[in-house]
Design a protein that fits this description.
alpha+beta; three-stranded antiparallel beta sheet; two-stranded antiparallel ribbon; 34% helix; Plug_dom_sf; TonB-dependent receptor plug domain protein
Amino acid sequence: METNPILNQLNMFSSFRRFFSSNWIQILFLFLFYVSIQAQDENIKTENKVIQKESPNTTTTDSKKDNGNGQNGQIVPEESQIVVTGSRGERRLKDSTVATEVISRKKIEASGARNAAEVLETQLGIDVVPFFGGSRVRMLGLDSQYVLILID
């Protein structure tokens, strides 16, 4: 018995139609996931770090980019550039040029916190967001990549 090629194509079309009508949400999700991965991949930029020694106790770190104009070893200022400054030597908190807040041992014990995230949640301007089994910390609206927390 011969099968009609037109009927075969119609059957194949109806099976595709059933598949896409029942799984369109998964297909849409996979497509959006793929697009977001591609967008993240394109946004990843390599940056070099330039460390300039300002004094025996202070080091300033700036990010630099090669913008194609031959200034490969120079720092190119940008509006959104973030400069991180740290100090190796001891310095009094009141002499600090950067807004710094210290949470004392007594405050930590009085809060009853079980981990660092719970301690940080008690501070104003700090949001602790659960993220894949850990936490991300947002400070004053800045994303976690711009926040530095030191634990002693």
